[in-house]
Specification:
With 516 residues, the chain is of the alpha/beta class. It is built from 17 helices and 26 strands. Among the domains are: 180 residues, 3-Layer(aba) Sandwich (Rossmann fold); 99 residues, 2-Layer Sandwich (GMP Synthetase, Chain A, domain 3), CATH 3.30.300.30. The chain has a nine-stranded mixed β-sheet. A seven-stranded mixed β-sheet has the order 7-6-5-3-4-8-9, with helices on both faces. Strand 25, helix 16 and strand 26 form a beta-alpha-beta unit. Helix 3 packs across helix 4, helix 8 packs across helix 9 and helix 11 crosses helix 13. The termini are far apart. Bound molecules: 5'-O-[(S)-[(2-aminobenzoyl)oxy](hydroxy)phosphoryl]adenosine.
Length: 516
């Protein structure tokens, strides 16, 4: 499928609404908080769309969502697209300063926030003149804001979709980098059917008989693609899980209860489940026909252990926020455990050296990708845009080699970024946290593989006046990190060193720390 195959005027709400013709009464969403049919979802989408219009939200306006994976997230997302707005699904793991930055950068007009997330964003809300209204999902009694249910209650359940061009923007995702705040990536209406057809149907073979379940959240592009856009494009149902992916018993119980056929997950969660004794005997996972992995490379031993325990094969796939979804994947029946598979239909890749020349098979090069779902730029980031969006080609920042059979093998990132549990971690953020301790003179963080061959942050720390590291100091630094950083960003190892390796010009040589 090509973008040209779509009508020129296309609205992404079609992904939901085509289901009203033949399966309006079919369950579209299942969750601990309730289920809904396609007809019910569509009615709530229309109510939210009308409520947004009543708040004067118009074509091109941004509306932010900050909420765990729940039905209101989904209906808000489609409603924003349907009225021609730009939906911003915010990462629920960020800090107040990051929300502050994103609200300013996106100029969100309305914020739809779950009561459990209000405390972290509330301190900065009044600063943003561009933010006109805050709607609270759940209990807003204490906060004095309008509640979601009350807001939509009197709204009509019908709404005509805005006549959007297929190239109009409809969603905004923020993705992290080594320095500075996250970068905004805009995607167009056309990108939704494209990724659903090219990955969901052509590679994963999804049909209306499938039921998806994801530990990757809807705010993460991998999660919304695999657990919302792909299933609804083919009329399948999705299971929403509002719990934490770290509570693996909860994840397994949800699979046991809702009987999904497709599990959308990340290597750390596969690893954590595999570490749970007898997990496949304690929970019924027999409904699964296919498991997906992305976010970071899936180690081959985990692939084999999972196959052994469940009988199901994991397809390791790679995508990025800039292409919206998958561009390389292992295919059912043709898997090379440990590799990212081969480019999928609709995408081409190249491996190039520092001068942009193609490298030979077996050699490591910078991965470039080309495909029609690719975004055009980073919002308000001229320099970073020029570096990454190179004509038709996207410079991913990943290093890969290709073997004689055409399979691609991840060889780390070209920048210093780490993917931990499928989430971005900037070494600089961890270094900044450690440096806040008065005793730290300098420090550096690099990726280090744990016993399960998954990358985790490791810190090298020099103390003031050349002091020796002690158990007490280690404890203090760990405590500081626990206070300042999300769990996945905390260093798993802290090593005290006399000095950090540097070039003659004083530049930190992270590769030498990585080699240790
Ligand atoms: C890394 C992988 C090795 C790689 C994503 C599937 O992760 C997604 O999007 P992000 O923008 O990050 C992209 C970067 O993550 N990565 C992802 N998958 C793999 N590295 N093996 C993998 N299988 O550095 C890439 O550049 O957060 C994943 C689908 C959609 C996505 N957006």
């Amino acid at each position: 499928m090509k973008a040209d195959d779509l009508p020129q005027f296309y609205n992404m709400c079609e992904i939901l609404e085509h289901n009203l013709q033949t399966r309006a009464g079919k369950t579209a969403i299942l969750s601990d908080e309730g289920s809904m049919t396609f007809a019910e979802v569509s009615q709530q989408v229309n109510q939210v769309g009308n409520a947004l219009t009543a708040l004067d939200v118009r074509f091109g306006d941004c509306v932010a969502i900050l909420c765990p994976d729940r039905i209101e997230w989904v209906t808000s997302f489609f409603a924003i697209g349907k009225i021609g707005g730009i939906a911003l699904g915010m990462n629920t793991l960020l800090k107040t300063e990051e929300y502050d930055y994103i609200l300013a950068d996106s100029r969100a007009r309305v914020l739809i926030v779950h009561d459990s997330m209000l405390a972290v964003i509330e301190p900065v809300l009044s600063k943003h003149e561009t933010l006109k209204r805050v709607i609270v999902i759940g209990d807003a009694a204490a906060s004095g804001y309008l509640t979601f249910n009350h807001w939509i209650a009197a709204q009509p359940t019908t709404l005509t979709a805005e006549r959007t061009h297929r190239d109009d923007f409809c969603s905004l995702h923020y993705s992290s980098g080594t320095t500075g705040m996250p970068k905004g990536v805009l995607h167009a209406h056309k990108d939704y059917p494209l990724i659903a057809q090219l990955s969901g149907v052509d590679v994963f073979g999804m049909t209306e008989n499938d039921r998806t379940f994801s530990v990757a959240k809807l705010f993460f592009v991998y999660g919304i693609g695999g657990n919302l856009i792909f299933p609804w494009y083919v009329g399948a149902s999705c299971v929403l899980y509002s719990g934490s992916p770290r509570q693996v018993a909860g994840v397994l119980k949800a699979i046991d209860t809702y009987q999904p056929t497709i599990f959308v997950s990340v290597p750390t969660v596969y690893g954590a489940i595999l570490a749970l004794p007898d997990f496949s005997a304690r929970f019924n996972l027999a409904s699964l026909r296919m498991c997906l992995s992305a976010g970071e490379a899936l180690p081959a031993p985990a692939w084999h252990a999972w196959k052994e325990a469940t009988g199901v094969e994991i397809l390791d796939t790679i995508g990025c926020t800039e292409t919206y979804h998958t561009f390389m994947a292992n295919r059912p029946g043709a898997i090379r455990p440990g590799s990212s598979g081969k480019p999928i239909g609709g995408y081409q890749v190249r491996l190039v050296d520092d001068d942009g020349n193609d490298v030979a098979a077996g050699e490591v090069g910078h991965l470039m990708v080309k495909g029609e779902s690719t975004a055009l730029f980073y919002l308000h980031q001229y320099e970073k845009t020029r570096h990454t969006f190179r004509g038709e080609w996207l410079f991913t920042g990943d290093r890969y080699s290709m073997d004689e059979e055409g399979y691609y093998w991840h060889a780390g990132r070209g920048d210093d970024m780490l993917k931990v549990g499928g989430l971005w971690v900037s070494p600089v953020e961890i270094e900044n946290a450690l440096s806040e301790h008065d005793a730290v003179s300098e420090c550096a963080v690099v990726g280090h593989y744990d016993n399960a061959q998954l990358l985790k942050p490791k810190a090298f720390v020099c103390l003031q006046g050349g002091a020796e590291g002690s158990t007490e100091m280690l404890g203090e630094l760990l405590k500081l990190c626990a206070k300042k950083l999300d769990a996945h960003k905390r260093p798993r190892w802290i090593e005290f060193v006399d000095s950090l390796p540097r070039t003659a010009t004083g530049k930190l040589q992270r590769f030498r720390l990585r080699e240790q």
